Amino acid sequence: MGNNSNIKWSLIWTNLWIVGIIYFVTLVAEDQFFKTHYSAWVWGTILIFFGVYYYWKLRLIHFLILGLVLGLGGWHYEAAEHMNTIFSHTTLITHLVLLFITLFTTMPKINKAVKLEIHARNLFQLAAQQVFDVSNGYTNRPYSGGKTDLGKNEILGLARYLAGKEILMYDAGPDMVTYAFSMNTSPLVDPQLNKVSYMSFDKEENISVHISETDYKQYKNKLSFDQLCASFINMFKQFLEYYKDGNEDRIITELKSY
């Protein structure tokens, strides 16, 4: 499976900025050449769609809130500036204040969720490179991957490093350390790990991996579940070796290659 197209295309929140540039050009062109004002209605609808879609996908309410405030802002502008309605400059300014407050309060969590999603896609891409069998599909069970020779200090150290780079989330309990990641439901909203994929390390350094069904279905082909799980185990063992040797930057390099 050695190519960069193992995972299905997905709408990425950062695509919104591309849409924004197109909207600005369209808005200016429409005003200059046609003297009409339909672009803001279309733009508002697209923003609301983005918010609803990403809330449905990642289950993070911040996307829905921001999408609604941005999208309704476009409609509000048109109603206040070009239509005889109850909306006015005063209500538009109030909406702008609300927009700035919403941006300030939602963007940090949204940015983190988007980075976690993108990095999760890279993790799944990297793991798929070592899977060559498409004979069977998903199994809803954890996969045991033996033990690691490294101790809890290295496991926790790698967790903190990867979390700091917003590659995954981790939880460190007295008996278990887990690395959580997903291309769908965000680990930010699933602390019980019911809907995300994760690696786990128990107090004896035994390793297991669980791949969520929604993440598995992002692959274009039905990859061998056992091979995919084994590939994840080997990948994170390699990451631990990189961390132990002080070569953790190699992790970033490998993930960026996808």
Give a structural overview.
The chain is an alpha+beta fold and 258 residues long. The protein has helices spanning 15-33, 39-58, 61-82, 89-128, 152-164, 213-216, 225-244, 249-256, and strands at residues 143-147, 169-172, 176-181, 197-202, 206-210. A hairpin with a 3-residue loop joins β4 and β5 (206-210). α1 (15-33) runs antiparallel to α2, α3 (61-82) runs antiparallel to α4 (89-128) and α4 crosses α7 (225-244). The mean pLDDT is 87.
Summarize this structure briefly.
The protein is α+β, with helices and mostly antiparallel strands. It has helices at 15-33, 39-58, 61-82, 89-128, 152-164, 213-216, 225-244, 249-256, and strands at residues 143-147, 169-172, 176-181, 197-202, 206-210.
Structural features:
258 residues, alpha+beta, five-stranded antiparallel beta sheet, 8 helices, 5 strands, elongated
Percentage of residues in strands = 5-15%
Number of strands: 5
The rough form would be described as elongated
**What is the number of helices?**
8
Strand order of the largest sheet: 1-5-4-3-2
Secondary-structure topology with pairs:
Elements: H1 15-33, H2 39-58, H3 61-82, H4 89-128, E1 143-147, H5 152-164, E2 169-172, E3 176-181, E4 197-202, E5 206-210, H6 213-216, H7 225-244, H8 249-256
Antiparallel strand pairs: 1-5, 2-3, 3-4, 4-5
Helix pairs in contact: 1-2, 2-3, 3-4, 4-7, 5-7
